[in-house]
Amino acid sequence: MEKEGFVSLWVGKVQTTEELNRLLAVSYSDEGDFFPSIFAKRFEIRRYDDAVREAEYYETVSNDLNQLLEGFSYDDEIVPRFEKLVQVGLPNDINAVVLLYNFKHTGEIVEAPILSNYLRFLGTIEYQ
Fold first, then answer.
1. Residues 37 and 31: beta-carbon distance below 8 Å
2. What is the arithmetic mean of pLDDT over 121-127?
């Protein structure tokens, strides 16, 4: 749900940049009806503001959260908070990150395989 001052984080393994973009693409009908992205459907997210979504695909895999989140908005605030939240180690094969700002994900689905890709919800933190 949209909630000012919060950011929700997903990480995973995605085949290509194009595939990540396809998973995150929202669309509208000619009448203006909203169709959520594949990502939103899999995590049962009704709607989020795409203007405050950040995502990145990396050519190499990593499990270093600091490295994965470097360069994102508010990284100096969110990196230590997410590291504290995610105290267990991450899988070694992460090459994609999705952040939804001003969004507090409360869904029950933690991990979603999507064709030959997967994304895992790590948590939500306050950033402001």
1. no
2. 94
Amino acid identity, position 3: K
Number of domains within the chain: 1
Contact yes or no for 10/121 (Cβ under 8 A): yes
pLDDT 10s digits, 76-104: 999 999 999 987 778 788 999 999 999 99
Tell which residue, 49, 103, 48, has the closest CA to residue 78.
Answer: 103
Q: What is the pLDDT of residue 80?
A: 95
- φ, ψ of residue 80 in degrees (nearest 5): -65, -35
Beta-bridge partner residues of 10: 98, 121
Print the domain residue range for 82: 2-126
Question: Distance (Å, rounded) from C-alpha 12 to C-alpha 29?
Answer: 29
Whether 94 and 111 have beta carbons less than 8 Å apart is answered as no
Which residue in 100, 94, 101 sits closest to 119, CA to CA?
A: 94
Q: Is the pLDDT of residue 44 over 90?
A: yes
Q: Comparing C-alpha atoms, which of 9, 6, 8 is closest to residue 126?
A: 6
With a threshold of 0.85, does the pTM exceed it?
Answer: yes
The rounded distance, in Å, linking the Cα atoms of 51 and 100 is 9
